[in-house]
Each structure stands twice: as C-alpha cells, then as structure tokens.
Amino acid sequence: MRIYTDEIINAICLNMADRRGVNPTDVEVQLSWEEEYGFTAEVWVNGRSQYIIEANILEAIEQYIYKQYQIRVFRSGITLDADEEFWADIAVE
C-alpha cells in the first residue's frame, strides 16, 4: 500500500488536531526532508509553529491507516520517501 503527500498531511492534521483538541481544519502542515534531520514537518496549530520528527509522522500514518482503512500497521512497516512529492510505502499483511 502506498499513500502520497495529501494523505500524509491529512494523517498529521488529524493526529495533531486530536492531540490539541482542535478541528483538523485548524492545523496546517509542511513536510520536508533534510540530509541532517531526515523527514520532518512544520505544523501550525492556531498560529503556533511546532516541528515534528519522523517518528511522529510515522505514528500519525499508523493511526490514520487504522482509522481510515481499518488496517492495523506498524511503524516498522512504514517507509517514507520523496522526490517531487512525498510518499509512504506501508507493509500490509
């Protein structure tokens, strides 16, 4: 299974909205990849900025796949990658 940028962003928005007790529409996300830090995302909630690391992104994807597709996956089975856009390859058993 593979999901792309939009679904990864949706996963992070839903995860952060749940954590902060806000609506998913109140969350903005910008994904990035850097040689030094790997995959990160800058997240804005109610005008406040926060950076999350790859482990947080994987957690959001894991929860998203379970809630949206009713498929239980594990972080160890999720691989992030990017070229012109971001995607996540997800091992489904």
Question: How is this structure best described in words?
Answer:
By secondary structure, this protein is α+β, with helices and mostly antiparallel strands. It has one domain (2-90). It is 34% helix and 38% strand. It has two helices and six strands, in the order βαβββαββ. The chain has helices spanning 5-20, 54-69, and strands at residues 2-4, 27-34, 38-45, 48-53, 78-82, 86-90. It has a three-stranded antiparallel sheet with strand order 1-6-5. The relative contact order is 0.23. This is DUF2653 family protein.
Short description:
Pfam families: DUF2653. The chain is α+β, with helices and mostly antiparallel strands. 34% of the residues lie in helices and 38% in strands.
Helices and strands, with pairings:
Elements: E1 2-4, H1 5-20, E2 27-34, E3 38-45, E4 48-53, H2 54-69, E5 78-82, E6 86-90
Antiparallel strand pairs: 1-6, 2-3, 3-4, 5-6
Helix pairs in contact: 1-2
Protein name: DUF2653 family protein
List keywords for this structure.
Uncharacterised_YxcD, 6 strands, single chain, 34% helix, 2 helices, alpha+beta, DUF2653 family protein, 93 residues, globular, 3-stranded antiparallel β-sheet
User: Which consecutive residue ranges, at least 5 long each, have pLDDT under 50?
Assistant: none
Order of helices and strands: EHEEEHEE
Distance between the termini: 10 Å
* Overall morphology: globular
**Strand tally, please?**
6
Largest sheet: 3 strands, antiparallel
The share of residues in extended strands comes to 35-45%
The rounded Rg comes to: 13 Å
User: Please, how many domains?
Assistant: 1
**How are the strands of the largest sheet arranged?**
1-6-5
How many helices does DSSP assign? 2
Q: How much helical structure, as a percent, in the residues?
A: 25-40%
Pfam families: DUF2653 (PF10850)
Protein name: DUF2653 family protein
InterPro entries: Uncharacterised_YxcD
